[in-house]
Fold these 4 entries.
Entry 1:
Amino acid sequence: MTARDMAVTGLGLVTPAGVGVEPSWTGICAGDGLAARDEVLAGLPVDFSCRVPDFDAAALLGPRLTWRIDRFTQLAMVAARQAVADAALDPEAWDGPRVAVVLGVAAAGGDTWADAYRSLAEGRVDAISPLTLPRSLPNMVAGEVSIDLRATGPCLTTSTACASGATALGIARDLLRAGSCDIAIAGGTDCARVPMGSAAFYRLGALSQRRDDPAAASRPFDVDRDGFVLSEGAGVVVLERPEHARARGARIRGYLAGYGASADGFHATSPRPDGDGARRAVEAALADAGAEPADVHHVNAHGTSTPQGDRIEANLLGTLFGSGAPPVTSVKGTIGHTLGAAGAVEAAVTVLSLERQLVPPTANLNQLDEGLAIDVVTKAPRAHRMTGALSNAFGFGGQNAVLFFRAA
């Protein structure tokens, strides 16, 4: 590590592979696609998604809190509590003003707005809940987590589309480096598997339409990929100044060493064909960490399963690393695209990969698209010696965020 690296001391995951870090890791390593028919989307052109199994918010958070917050915040709250517990931190005892909360979100309160619009369309204005705005505003996820955990330092929400979760970790790292806090609770959350989300992405042509076999619909880098699968989830990481973590005897799971961000400046939804924006974000993350391409032993790719996006990312990686390209994975083959949560969920998985020296497989990759010069792990996890890894996140608007982690 270097003096600028920040320690990862806690992880929290709520994904379609399971509620908790171990269930999520086990499910992702199993390498099976988890998309299935979704009754919430019944009757729509794309009626399947990846959803968190057995997520009983009332049992996990209590009925009163569950009633007050939208599902995207419920997911984040559970992941944040997990991460804080994993870090062996006690919100009752910590110095609240020295604890920051930075959470990313893209779609925010879809369920709440759908309910409100329904009442409005029926002319029942008085039926619109007074909690509509507090439940649905994007910033409320950070606000509610701050309230729940008594974290009263900087409290921010990032929104860089599907890069939001990774951007949140990068900004949290910057707050730590600047001395604005000693601990940062950072991550991302989203729940876009709502009717408007599915219909809108369908009209955009972004979703897989493999209705006859939903479990095989998300297939990053496969020759037959035809779009991504909507998902939901949350990932939260506890970051600390290393000296703060060591002083309290914390277990350090890894280090966030580099963060790079860039804009394509090209198109509202399509990435630059030459991958220049993504390349600059990768190079910035490595430079920030004082690392070289040879220090990257694994890449957790953005890999959404869209024809254009996967090709551009694969070409970038092939050019950057050449014949020595490290093993690549995309967890979206298993859990779909969690949008604003993706960058944080995948960052947590990257930390676990470094910790366990194991690269999870990319589900549903039966035949690598011709011309993609990358080594994608498939079928089963691959044991691999590694000390450094990249986690890529790219979003609509051409917003790119890349994180570089070192093993503890």
Entry 2:
Amino acid sequence: MSAPLSNGPERQSFTCGPGNHCDRAIGSCMWRCGRRGVPVLWIGDIASSGMHAPLYACDDCTAGLDALVWAWARHRDGLAPPDAAVDGCGCG
């Protein structure tokens, strides 16, 4: 059984067309920034301690994730040197 999350996106329809983000909903970014009431995109599910929850991110945070994916791909293909953001968290 699942329950709605208080910070999950609200149900809202968007007009789809060129340049529109029709796959977005209005809600809270659950990735990094935590902004509320912004267009968010479902980027997958997250699992922790045997529990699962949907993960939504705003355009700014998904752009950061996209940059990490491209940096990793360039590194994997031998086109760029390793980067702390690609090879590890750089936390320390």
Entry 3:
Amino acid sequence: MYKRLAFNTASNLGALFIKLGITFVMTPILIKNMGNYDYGLWEMVGAVIGYMGMLDMGIRPAVSRFAARFIAQKDESALITLYATAWYFLLGVGLLIALILGLGGMFFAELVAPEESTDNVRYTWFLLILAAQLLITFPSYTAESYLEAYQEYYLKNNVTIVNSILGSTILFIFITPENALVLLAATNAIGICSKYLFLVWLMQYRRPFLSLRRAYFSLLQLKELLRFSVKTLVQGVATKMENATDSLVIGFVMGPAAVPLYSIPANLVSYIRLISYNFTHVFMPYFSSLGALNDQRKIQEVYLTGSKFTVAPCLILAIGAYTLGPEFLSLWVGDEIARSAQEFLGVLIAFLVLPLVNPMASRYLTAIDKHGFFAKWQPIVALSNLGLSLLLIYPLGILGVALGSLIPALVFQPIVLGVCCKHLGFSPFVYLRFALLPWLIPCVAMAATLVAAKQFFVITNYGILLAIASVASMVFIVVGALFALNQHERSQLMAIVKRKKN
């Protein structure tokens, strides 16, 4: 099973790194052609769409969790009922959201257009394209959840990679200031819709016993899904508020044109969290399967080992982002955004990276149906985030928004660690000693290398920056292999590498 987990994680990370490369190339092009207003609007509407996406009532992770249990129990009948029930429920949700966006595009497009705009046609098309995208993708999420339950992440990742490359190529060739917003929305929608329609076909092809006949829709199954997923819903809405509210607060208070000053550094740093997310994504259905088999010892082993190996790359990226971030932003998108980011970059990194010191928390608690803790407390954290951001943005600007996000997280994350360790059956000190403290020496060694390198080299191009980052990362890896890993862990890593080569 470790081989499959490693393969799926590598597949997730491969897709992520390709998207990161595309983001690196396309972001300056998008800003140049869209301007600060339309780019900020894209970010703000994306945040709102994220909130609307929560209308799935948390069904998607619930489907993945229940399907993994039914697969472990070899219950085909339950898998059929679950598949059809989730499909028709999400179809209804997709219709509702598409209707809201469609009406907004046809009758209220001026609400998202600039005040000086005399032609709102592109904003109408923008909202209509988003409506069509969500109508198709919502019910298709069911197939994606089943692929995750079957531990077949590589299938959806391969499609994502192809679509991302094709979409970015089309944008690169055809984008102009006149068509940028609509072309971006259209290529994004076509790529996402084609991906999900293919996943639906693939799931039916590989598992012919699954059926979308309405006769298999079960209200009883839906109630069971909603009983579980309502906690995921509350957690998801709160997490979305915590992560997406900042851009909305800046946009409403300072205007959409100010959003890129925050969102571009934030999106860049958020890839650290996305890497952790992709490392841990495969573990939720695995924890669910182990829970169905009552294998607590194995759960403890997987939690500690998985956390330890997930924390390491996040620390490398966080140290690198803090030390080299301003120089990278200056080379990438210009001095204006780089100068703005210097003021709040450290706070932003701390906020985004803090949950990653315990990266398995949400996966594990969801798998054992104990995620009600997040449903109870995370809304309070999210509301605190929103309140503090609104309070601090006036005296401190964007820095105040970043601080408004960090302060509640500093209180909440240690509590999360205590809850997880209570259910796992060991103390937080065991977790800290096993998963975090071993990386202290590698972190110090990497940070010292970066500080020393910046004293001797002026970073005037990507080559110098990449060389410094590569050397510092290798210092972390070498020192980590010597001081952070024990002999058994080194042997595990070598075994995985050898299997990949073969």
Entry 4:
Amino acid sequence: MISQHYDMVNIEQNDKTFDLFYDAEKAGFMEYNVKENILEIIHTEVFKEFGGKGLGQELVKAAVEFARKNDYKIVASCPYAKKIIDATPEFKDLLAK
């Protein structure tokens, strides 16, 4: 398990999810699969009470960092993750063709 910390945000990477904690309370998650050096982001969710804090972007950032570290390309099946990756020039190089 890998943990990434940002001020009040903690992201724990598990076998098929990144779990997001805000001030030690679970605030959301991202589901993913890895197959043949492709990281597929399936679903990203931040719970309503934690909305508006940019936490979904932190989940996408954690997935991108995980992909870079492991030389994976990304397929963003999740519309939210795709939107964030498409809008962030430094993430676009990781998109699978």
